[in-house]
């Protein structure tokens, strides 16, 4: 399995380093770093898991909205999110959700503009109120999904409890 003069444990260490760095990048909100690391570690991941790339880009979109950089967020939606959703129709609901983050929060509207004349709107995101946290994934959660997809591709096993549950037929399987 290991080539030539390479130490038997080396690929595992490399894979664990990649996963650890992925988490650090996600925790710091470094979307370009996450994209570059995954591309370097496994260039085929994005083509096999376009939903993961889409979610990373949605995180980037959400960060731009949160910083008030609306024009850049819209450009990202046009150049990255829309083509991915067009190529993979299962991503269309997530694209709609991302676009909904642009709408003003119901809490920021005057009561007479709310459905049923007002009352407790119960939250909501959007450029007019908050960062759309309910509509857009966090980079940390997306990094967790990327780690799960990368683990077997890097020759790593998941946590022992997860493996036992999968063997028993309980919980999701890869």
From TrEMBL:
This is CTLH/CRA C-terminal to LisH motif domain-containing protein. Residues 116-132 have a biased composition (Gly residues). Pfam families: CTLH (PF10607). The lineage of its organism: Eukaryota, Viridiplantae, Chlorophyta, core chlorophytes, Chlorophyceae. Residues 110-133 are annotated as: Disordered. Residues 27-105 form the CTLH/CRA C-terminal to LisH motif domain.
């Amino acid at each position: 399995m290991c080539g030539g003069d390479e130490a038997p444990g080396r690929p595992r260490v490399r894979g664990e380093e990649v996963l650890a760095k992925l988490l650090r990048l996600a925790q710091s909100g470094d979307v370009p770093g996450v994209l570059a690391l995954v591309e370097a570690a496994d260039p085929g991941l994005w083509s096999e898991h376009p939903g993961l790339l889409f979610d990373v880009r949605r995180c980037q979109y959400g960060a731009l909205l949160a910083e008030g950089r609306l024009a850049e967020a819209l450009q990202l939606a046009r150049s990255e999110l829309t083509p991915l959703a067009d190529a993979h129709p299962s991503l269309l609901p997530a694209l709609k959700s991302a676009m909904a983050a642009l709408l003003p929060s119901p809490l920021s509207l005057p009561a007479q503009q709310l459905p049923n004349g007002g009352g407790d709107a119960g939250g909501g995101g959007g450029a007019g109120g908050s960062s759309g946290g309910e509509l857009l994934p966090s980079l940390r959660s997306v990094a967790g999904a990327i780690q799960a997809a990368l683990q077997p591709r890097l020759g790593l096993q998941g946590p022992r409890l997860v493996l036992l549950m999968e063997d028993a037929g309980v919980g999701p399987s890869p």
